[in-house]
Amino acid sequence: MAIRLGDTAPDFTADTTEGPISFHQWKGDSWAVLFSHPKDFTPVCTTELGYTATLAEEFARRNVKVIGLSCDSVDDHVAWSQDIEDTQGIRPNFPMIGDADRTVADLYDMIHPNASDTMTVRSVFVIGPDNAVKLTITYPASTGRNFDEVLRVIDSLQLTATKKVATPVNWQQGDDVIIVPALSNEEAAELFPDGWDEQKPYLRVVAQP
């Protein structure tokens, strides 16, 4: 069954390149990015894992833990890490789940039979501190992901989780935002005393709080 936004991310235990984990316990009260790659020792995945490793400080600054998965063994992940370092200049600095029996892949609906019966698609799950699924993205095996976009969405999710705003098209950290329509002008005036640009009654643009 597909996982929907707002669902509780399924818990699981698994072996990883950093030892056995219980997912919810490992995640704690952090945010998390759980992402699958189709197979070890494949070209697109090699570039993805290398780039994700370069973003370690960016994820840490946002209180985000990253964990990868494929339907390969932990031993394969460890061996592949050397190839990733050889070609990308850095080895994965986050745990990778060994899921040869597809337990986690099935739990998160990462295998799409119309695409492949044996390989996970490029799934991304962003999970909040409350263990609720905040974002899902699914890419085909042939298309590498944009992890800068994943960071951008996390910035938006973390901002809108605590402020009564939404982020407009192509928003980047520090750009203007939109006051949520559910907030009346009287309520908005209390939260945004410096005012806003009311382009339409439902489109009130304000500096990022």
Provide structural commentary:
The protein is of the alpha+beta class and 209 residues long. It folds into 2 domains: 13-145, Glutaredoxin (3-Layer(aba) Sandwich); 163-206, 2-Layer Sandwich (Antioxidant, Horf6, Chain A, domain 2), CATH 3.30.1020.10. It has helices spanning 23-27, 43-54, 56-61, 74-88, 103-107, 147-162, 185-191, and strands spanning 13-14, 21-22, 31-36, 64-70, 96-98, 122-127, 133-139, 165-166, 177-179, 197-200, 203-206. The strands form 3 sheets. Strands 5-4-3-6-7 form a 5-stranded mixed β-sheet. It has a 4-stranded antiparallel β-sheet with strand order 8-9-11-10, covered by helices on one side. A two-stranded antiparallel sheet has the order 1-2. Helix 2 (43-54) crosses helix 4 (74-88). The chain starts with 12 loop residues before the first strand and ends with a strand. The model has no long low-confidence stretch (mean pLDDT 94).
Q: What is the total domain count?
A: 2
The number of helical segments is 7
* Arithmetic mean pLDDT: 94
CATH class of the largest domain reads Alpha Beta
Rg (CA only): 19 Å
Order of helices and strands: EEHEHHEHEHEEHEEHEE
Level-2 CATH architecture of the largest domain: 3-Layer(aba) Sandwich
CATH topology of the largest domain: Glutaredoxin
Specify the overall morphology: elongated
What percent of the residues sit in helical stretches (DSSP H or I)?
25-40%
Structural class: alpha+beta
CATH superfamily of the largest domain: Glutaredoxin
Major β-sheet profile: 5 strands, mixed
Low-confidence stretches: none
Extended strand count: 11
Portion of residues in beta strands equals: 15-25%
**Roughly how many Å apart are the termini?**
38 Å
